[in-house]
Amino acid sequence: MKNLRDYIIVTAAYWNFMLTDGALRMLTLLYFHDQGYSPVKLAFLFLLYEFCGVITNLFGGWLAQRQGLKATLIYGLALQVSALGLLSFLDTSWPEIKAVAFVMAAQALSGIAKDLTKMSSKTAVKFLIPEDQSSSLFKWVAILTGSKNAIKGAGFFFGGFLLQTWGFKQSLWLMAALILIIFVFTIFALTGDLGQAKNKNRLKELFTQGKQINTLAAARVFLFGARDIWFVVGIPIFMSEGLGWSFTKIGTFMAVWVILYGIVQSLAPKIVKGKNGEAPDGKVATKLAIALSLAMAFLLVCYLTAGINATLLISGLYIFGFIFALNSSVHSFLILEYADNDKAAMNVGFYYMANAMGRLIGTLLSGLLYQFFGLTGCLGGSLIFLIITTIFSNFLEKNPQITQIHTDGEKTEL
Q1: Which domain holds residue 123?
Q2: Across residues 304-332, what is the average pLDDT?
Q3: Best label site of 59, 77, 120, 281, fewest CB within 10 Å?
């Protein structure tokens, strides 16, 4: 690694942000469910969050390659402080339509903040690893992505716990203070020109990403849509209504799921490498998408035949999470492997735009399908999305040159 210090700074900022992001998601969902909001209304609370993520990723990469990744990372942290502070002014005596509009606006700011921070942190790794070390890139991306999701999982527990012990407003103030601290630290500690391109790409080049990046982005839309169809609204509300779980218990399940998901992502380089230690390619992504589809099909059949069986359902979701983590980790490696150095921020931004689009579609469908078809609709919708993911994954490049993975990060062409 070229600069371990910058990697640590970027990772610390990302960790701190994702702790509050996970907590805010759980805090908002459970608080407004307790206020009597329907699944569709709960989904609408997050729609602007996801939509702004789409726009932010599309243009954030272009901004980063002009101003540097430090600038976009700082913008993201500052906006999160603003979003958390703004949301604390919510008045429960407001008419419902005003309250929903206000929360959507605050969540929109948080969505912009999340994806600026995410795009900046993920892209930074590309510039901290030597160009000829694909295996090392896979390892460090997996560590960043996996640890981020473990921290976000802790945030789900943190949010449920804070809501039950401190209340809504006080929890927001505490999280804003945590982000403010890391914001100040990052301003003074991080290198100023990280990721700033020598040649400034024109705005229209956002839409000329290349076949492989476009295909990977399409697969990513449906992969993350498949997860969020059941994850965002369906499962938490089902656990509250169908299983009678408390806020803390729901938050704990969501936390453990995401933490384990993050751990598996971190270990992905050791799990998905081939017999000769080669780095993953499109063929690996396709096999994982097929496995994920089969896991969801099995879960759906079990739920339809066994009904409300908490142990069976939770076990199935953990199996899904294991395979999903590997698939997501391979995608995160492939986008950096495909990315062109001078357009890396734009390439990664476009890819995470697709990621956000998947979450946006999944979030909306999560509320709609749960309200009209229950958990069966959410699981069935997820299966359809996974089949589409598999189809797109099949068109990803099967590397003509196999890269040998070594523990020291070196690579050898076979």
Answers
A1: 4-192+202-404
A2: 89
A3: 59
